[in-house]
Design a protein that fits this description.
The structure is a homodimer.
Chain A lengths: L3 E11 L7 H7 L4 E6 L3 H4 L2 H11 L3 E5 L8 H13 L4 E6 L1 H14 L6 H4 L10 E5 L11 E6 L4 E6 L7 E4 L9 H19 L7 H23 L4 H15 L12 H13 L3 H16 L4 H12 L7 H18 L16 H10 L7 E2 L3 E2 L1 H9 L3
Parallel strand pairs in A: 1-8, 2-3, 2-4, 4-5, 5-8
Antiparallel strand pairs in A: 6-7, 9-10
Chain lengths: ~400, ~400
């Protein structure tokens, strides 16, 4: 196990109706003038935004609002939010939505107290100061409710970049599984895939002697395999939604990723799929992960075989190679069973796209022609992985 | 799943040599005049205390020290520590040791800023204010390094009581597995048992639909079953110690105990064993847990059978009753295999003690004659459980 630090100071308030504590919680964490950030009309139509505003008002908190956050959130709205914060002396940013809304809120919170351009943080500057952020989560997927990360796309050039820092870890996060029940099966399945990918990116490690975190990851994956299909089949299943929601947080606050190298090749490879085909991140990951593992498993057959046996129940009698391949096939079948795609053809992709995809994956974002994760990948390797998605 | 809040703001610094960051960390969390609390001579002899003092000095921090904390820590030393804090304007309490040292430090930290008698907190008053506490952990067992709890014994009457509050959650905890390598096999096994008990007390629940936390607990137990015997057989096994240390923290910071009722009958029943026989808490738990489960499993055979199948690998073919009983036997055998006792006879106990043990367990600490956990236990039930320890 490698040396590490772990810090997850967020105050989590979990369960039915807990969004009505928004006002009380903002006050507890020092807010008196709040910018409420949200996405499309669903938070308005469902009455959620109204309940939150009422709760803030009831606690004597003044609120301002900024709607219109879209998936793959853009820098333009961040600048708007920063302007509001400065003009109105906002001292707290409250995100009501999923990962995109939370990431936008984090960017606004950091930018509002920074003299320069907030984009500096997304070019590599560590975030060390920010307004406190609270979240009311409506989609189980990105894990941003418990993470120190934010991903924003700059409109000029459409660069998608991440920033990080303990200062943008949410002060509190309200997790009410009821709020995720309105999510249709396809989006639910995309979220499930994203959560499982966060776990598997941590599982595929080159560190040895990491039994405790291995077992935690396996446990969370087993819970997702059991609860995921229930939520897809019956969106109103509160209990399945609740299990997924807590697993989604645990998958990404790094409790089970500490002390070990992590992979993240699949996220990097998927990135170009959502960029080119405008597909959902989760759907892209469902296509990417089995294709990637079918290429990468030879790097550490024993690890992938362990994953296959413990998570997918592959028989002990099989040798490592057979078990690994069967586990990868089980993963693919699971994604298909919850309605996820398994080829880029389903996004309209063809063999003609492969060179371009691989080139951007390997040289985009200032990369040096290789991807460095569980396995080191050359451009040819990446092409081969994309080819396995046809 | 039930509504809950979860809050674990401690900054964990894990790995080899990290105690040398003590000064830097105390400073980061606002300390400039520190009371260093420790136990017996081993922290001095091993050189640990010297390294910590050097690190504090190097960071320009003034330090005072209070040694002599014993297992089942006493109120007397807490009063001494409070006096030093007040006289010397101490603004940070640093625990160097195991659960007893940390619990003493938490009590001092709360008492130092409280006008009344610190014992009020151990009579039920919630701790809402305290000096910040840091810990340098030397024993994996109690989980106090990540918890909001403290247990102290009042010398007048020898009452053992707990206090709680987010204000005494450690600001930081340094977890260096090397520091646990000097612990002999018996104490190591006691710690392993305590950690497993913390997990099983959470596992035995009357809440339904708690798949995610079930799976996390099972994963952590499986890691302990694999890594525990390695550390007992070879105290210098850094990697086993590291896996146990992280599992010990995760077992008790409540990540995997949220949203579900918990048991704690075994801890309450064990309490009287360590009081009467002066045995180690972990050794008492090793005797108690299998005896308790052999009585209590009928309350929810399916749950105990699930525990037996997923944690102890009991065959799927067995019916729930057979699996449950086999799982309980596997648990007992595991404890025996790491050198733990399985009867009170090994502490010198006899049948003649049973009435007294049960009476104190059921009526001590202001109890009403029953224990309320996974199963509600009458005094006769508790007698029967003690009888199964003969």
């Amino acid at each position: 196990m490698e040396n590490f630090t772990f810090y997850s100071p967020t105050y989590f308030v979990f369960g039915k109706g807990e969004e009505n504590k928004a006002g009380e919680l903002v006050k507890k964490f020092g807010g008196s003038r709040v910018l409420v950030v949200y996405g499309g009309g669903s938070a308005v139509k469902s009455g959620l935004l109204g309940r939150v505003t009422d709760s803030l008002k009831g606690a004597g908190i003044e609120s301002f609002s900024l709607g219109g956050v879209k998936p793959n959130p853009r820098s333009g709205l961040v600048y708007e939010g920063i302007d509001i914060c400065r003009k109105e002396n906002v001292d707290f940013v409250l995100a009501v939505g999923g990962g995109s809304v939370i990431d936008t809120s984090k960017a606004i919170a950091a930018g509002a107290v920074y003299d320069g351009d907030f984009w500096d943080f997304y070019m590599g500057k560590r975030i060390t100061e920010a307004l406190p952020v609270g979240t009311i989560l409506t989609i189980s997927a990105a894990g941003s409710e418990g993470s120190p990360d934010s991903v924003i796309t700059k409109e000029e050039g459409m660069f998608k970049r991440g920033a990080s820092g303990d200062a943008i870890r949410p002060a509190f996060s309200i997790l009410n599984p009821e709020l995720t029940q309105s999510l249709p099966p396809y989006q639910t399945a995309c979220g499930i895939t994203d959560i499982m990918a966060h776990l598997m990116e941590r599982y595929m490690t080159n560190s040895s002697d990491v039994q405790t975190t291995d077992r935690m990851i396996e446990g969370l994956l087993l819970a997702m395999i059991e609860e995921g299909p229930k939520a897809v089949a019956n969106p109103d299943d509160y209990e399945a939604r609740a299990n997924i929601m807590w697993a989604g947080m645990m998958a990404h606050n790094n409790s089970c990723g500490v002390g070990r190298s992590q992979d993240w090749n699949s996220h990097n490879i998927e990135h170009e799929l959502s960029a080119l085909y405008d597909c959902a991140h989760g759907a892209g990951l469902a296509v990417t992960f089995p294709a990637y593992l079918s290429f990468a498993y030879k790097h550490d057959v024993a690890r992938v075989a362990q994953f296959a046996r413990r998570v997918w129940g592959c028989p002990e009698e099989l040798d490592d190679e057979e078990a690994a391949l069967m586990g990868i096939e089980s993963l693919r079948e699971f994604f298909t069973s919850i309605g996820m795609p398994s080829t880029i053809g389903e996004f309209g992709g063809t063999e003609a796209d492969i060179d371009k995809l691989a080139n951007v994956a390997c040289y985009g974002d200032g990369r040096d022609g290789k991807l460095y994760g569980f396995v080191e990948l050359s451009e040819d390797d990446v092409k081969e992985i994309y080819r396995r998605m046809l």
